[in-house]
């Protein structure tokens, strides 16, 4: 046997220090790059300020200065580190140098702003004059609107003006005329809204007429599809369809909000699909008939060819014309010759199906276009314009002005922001960065964990699988035994067990009927696999969960240790703990059983603990008075009185185990969950619904029987039932 090279293993403890060193080096380089970039940016902005000749240039520089100050706040930790002489990077660049550059930039901006303040005043007056004139002109145009089309056509001008005012609000909001401008904007918006409402009915009527005409054309083309008998007729039909599509596409923003627009698009889509189907059918019919022509002189071969074409394709000519004549060989030959001549006269061989398919795809996209495009009907436009007017009012009131006085204050505040970032206290930095971990250390640590776990599974995986072999054998034997049991015996045993648990004939009959229905619908084998898995998982959960619950009830320390574990088991997504289980044990029944138990065990543990803790102290004192031992108190007093809670835990454990059936099927667990998973992947509705209902039926069976048994035991213990 050839030697096998051992897989190198790496300890996570050995992996973390190199990751820390790499992270520190990268962080140092990033810090150095950051401080150099900030200093260079401040120098560039200062140079731009000195060369600025227009006030708007200064505003743009101020915006960039604001971004620089915000960035400094984010990197406060780095700025503080680079003020210390202990940091070797301060020998290259330091935050003190950055602060000097920023203060120089602030002073330069302040001086230049004062120098160009006259330009601001002239620009401000120019904006008010321009906007005032534009509003006056547009107000006259809006007043003269006399049709819905004019309402729509004037909107772009209004939208452009309102957006321009909003964008330049900070240049004019400190002026005393700003409030008057806002009033004019709102007045213009109100006039436009009134005009839109006035002509809305006429617009809707016009759109209704247009859409009705389009629907009429679509219906006419739909009715003519069956009468298409030649390539030329098909091409004419496709041209008309294309013209309708172009009109519907060009007017999509106008038609969008009309009540019948979506139905019209749906009708056009249906027409396009039918046209595509017709073109494909004509081309396929021509091909089938062409293939049958050589068989004209061999009646048997011709008949077989027609039958084969019927099986292989879904061509109307074959199904409706040739198949009825398949046993009449003479008539069949005559019909094939007749069809060949008809198709040749109609130029069926020249049909371009790809062109029809391309048109069909463009029509299909119309529906998405009607969903995404902005409507341009009068009411929608009026609403949009009203929103723009409101935005102008909000911007005028809230946005920071860029007049010279406000700018001077802002420059000082930005310089102060950078200074504060440099001198941020250690406590503030600690609070802001306490939960941050360098990305390189985190990534390397995760890689180490993954590598260590893979090494562990490679080294001990076989031993772990061997440990669970008896459990796998138990599952396989029980499943084979149940599958080998004749179904009448299985139903009888299930009915007897249900009666023993519930003492109810109705429950027994219901259980037998549920199992019979599942088997009748051809789901017997997966049902047996599911019952086996759920039964084994429930028994394992009870065997481990009840003792744990008893231990938690006896020890507060045990409860404090186990409760967080139960919280994790209940809240962590099942897909997360499936990963290590599959890595250690592969896929199959045992990993599925372990996953089900992890998910289903917490209820029985919690409710056993709760039930025992809720036992009356008087009952315990009475037991102590009679000299009962610990074992006698537990099994003759506490557990019997806690049975309602314990059986509630049993019931919930069964329900949660059933809920894991579909998820467990993802790791190879056979049963009713596997067909459900296949149905989801392949969109098999009937199979998914049937198997889902079978899981529901099992859940009801287990739920009703377990609840009835718990209720009967409780009554028996209390003396209500002899």
What layout of secondary structure does this protein have?
Layout: H1 12-51, H2 55-74, H3 76-81, H4 95-115, H5 117-143, H6 148-167, H7 169-172, H8 178-224, H9 231-250, H10 252-255, H11 261-292, H12 299-312, H13 316-322, H14 329-345, H15 353-372, H16 378-398, H17 404-422, H18 426-433, H19 439-467, H20 469-484, H21 487-502, H22 505-520, H23 524-554, H24 556-571, H25 574-585, H26 589-613, H27 617-625, H28 630-659, H29 661-664, H30 673-682, H31 685-718
Helix pairs in contact: 1-2, 1-4, 1-19, 2-17, 4-17, 5-6, 5-8, 6-8, 6-16, 8-9, 8-11, 8-16, 9-11, 9-15, 11-14, 11-15, 12-14, 19-25, 20-23, 21-22, 21-31, 22-31, 23-24, 23-26, 23-28, 24-26, 25-26, 26-28, 28-31, 30-31
């Amino acid at each position: 046997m050839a030697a096998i090279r051992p897989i190198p293993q790496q300890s996570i403890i050995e992996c973390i220090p190199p990751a820390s060193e790499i992270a520190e080096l990268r962080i140092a380089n990033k810090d150095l790059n950051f401080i150099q970039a900030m200093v260079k940016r401040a120098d560039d902005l200062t140079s731009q300020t000195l060369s600025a000749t227009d006030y708007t240039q200064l505003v743009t520089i101020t915006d960039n200065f604001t971004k620089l100050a915000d960035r400094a706040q984010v990197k406060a930790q780095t700025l503080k580190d680079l003020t210390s002489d202990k940091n070797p990077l301060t020998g290259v660049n330091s935050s003190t140098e950055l602060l000097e550059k920023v203060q120089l930039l602030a002073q330069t901006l302040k001086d230049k702003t004062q120098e160009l303040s006259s330009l601001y005043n002239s620009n401000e007056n120019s904006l008010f004059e321009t906007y005032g004139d534009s509003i006056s002109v547009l107000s006259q145009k809006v007043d003269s609107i006399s049709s819905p089309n004019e309402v729509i056509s004037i909107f772009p001008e209004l939208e452009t003006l309102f957006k321009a005012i909003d964008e330049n609000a900070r240049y004019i909001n400190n002026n005393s005329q700003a409030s008057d401008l806002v009033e004019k904007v709102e007045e213009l918006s109100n006039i436009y809204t009134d005009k839109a409402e006035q002509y809305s009915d006429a617009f809707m009527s016009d759109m209704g007429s247009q859409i009705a005409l389009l629907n009429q054309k679509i219906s006419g083309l739909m009715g003519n599809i069956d009468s298409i008998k030649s390539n030329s007729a098909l091409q004419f039909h496709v041209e008309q369809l294309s013209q309708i599509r172009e009109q519907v596409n060009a007017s999509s923003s106008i038609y969008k909000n009309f009540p019948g627009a979506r139905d019209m698009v749906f009708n056009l889509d249906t027409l396009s699909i039918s046209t595509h189907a017709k073109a494909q059918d004509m081309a396929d019919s021509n091909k089938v008939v062409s293939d049958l022509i050589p068989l004209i002189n061999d009646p048997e071969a011709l008949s077989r060819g027609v039958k084969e074409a019927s099986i292989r394709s879904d061509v109307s000519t074959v199904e409706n014309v040739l198949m009825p004549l398949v046993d009449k060989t003479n008539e069949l030959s005559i019909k094939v010759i007749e069809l060949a001549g008809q198709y040749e006269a109609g130029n069926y061989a020249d049909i371009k199906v790809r062109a029809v398919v391309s048109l069909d795809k463009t029509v299909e996209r119309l529906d998405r276009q009607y969903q995404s495009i902005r409507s341009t009907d009068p009411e929608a436009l009026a609403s949009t314009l009203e929103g723009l007017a409101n935005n102008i009012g909000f911007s005028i009131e809230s946005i920071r002005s860029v007049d010279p006085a406000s700018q001077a204050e802002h420059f000082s505040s930005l310089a102060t922001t950078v200074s504060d970032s440099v001198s941020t206290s250690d406590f503030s930095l600690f609070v802001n960065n306490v939960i941050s971990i360098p990305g390189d250390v985190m990534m390397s640590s995760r890689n180490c964990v993954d590598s260590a776990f893979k090494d562990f599974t490679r080294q001990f995986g076989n031993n772990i699988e061997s440990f669970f072999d008896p459990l796998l054998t138990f599952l396989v034997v029980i499943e084979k035994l149940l599958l080998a049991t004749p179904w009448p015996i299985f139903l009888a045993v299930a009915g007897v067990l249900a009666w023993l648990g519930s003492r109810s004939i109705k429950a027994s009959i219901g259980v037998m009927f549920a199992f019979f229905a599942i088997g009748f619908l051809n789901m017997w084998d997966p049902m047996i696999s599911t019952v086996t898995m759920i039964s084994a998982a429930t028994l394992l959960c009870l065997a481990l969960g009840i003792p744990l619950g008893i231990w938690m009830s006896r020890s507060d320390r045990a409860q404090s240790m186990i409760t967080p574990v139960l919280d994790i088991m209940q809240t962590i997504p099942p897909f997360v703990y499936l990963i290590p289980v599959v890595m250690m044990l592969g896929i199959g029944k045992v990993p599925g059983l372990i996953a089900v138990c992890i998910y289903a065990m917490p209820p029985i543990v919690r409710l056993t603990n709760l039930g025992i803790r809720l036992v009356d102290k008087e009952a315990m004192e009475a037991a102590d008075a009679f000299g009962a031992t610990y074992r006698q108190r537990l099994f003759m007093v506490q557990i019997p009185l806690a049975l309602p809670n314990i059986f509630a835990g049993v019931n919930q454990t069964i329900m949660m185990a059933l809920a894991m059936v579909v998820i467990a099927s993802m790791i190879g667990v056979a049963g009713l969950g596997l067909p459900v998973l296949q149905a989801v992947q392949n969109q098999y509705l009937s199979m998914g619904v049937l198997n889902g209902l079978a899981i529901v039926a099992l859940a009801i069976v287990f739920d009703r029987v377990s609840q009835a048994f718990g209720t009967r035991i409780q009554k028996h213990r209390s003396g209500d039932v002899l």
